[in-house]
Amino acid sequence: MRLRMPRLRAVHPVVRRLGYSPKADGRPDPGEVVWAWVPYEEDASQGKDRPVLVIGTDGDQLLALPLTSKDHDVDQGQEARAGREWMDIGTGAWDVQRRPSEVRLNRVLRLDAGGVRREGAALPEDVFDAVLEAARPYL
Description:
Elements: E1 16-18, E2 32-39, E3 47-58, E4 61-68, H1 76-81, E5 86-90, E6 101-104, E7 109-112, E8 116-122, H2 125-135
Antiparallel strand pairs: 1-3, 2-3, 2-8, 3-4, 4-6, 4-7, 5-6
């Protein structure tokens, strides 16, 4: 009696790509600040629409870091004790009031591209590179 072995399909590993590649094409690309629904850390069933910096892709998902216009320099010690790491990135067209923004370095979000609601603006490449370097320990 001959045993039939299941046919195996080649599985291609998901390639995680990080890097700067913004294109003004309406789709979210690494280097761009876009808006998406972001779940709260305390309760993932709740969240809000907020700007995020797309830093790369992982398969068909976007890798992004959340932004805020709140100045965490004033409560830097408290934020550090809570395990939150922030970096100033300046101002941009993603905020209509042109308030200075900060990016959260140690909270990598995985987003579906279809869930991104609008394109904000692209970061300057040197600022993006500095963010990526500062976030590397958390990636």
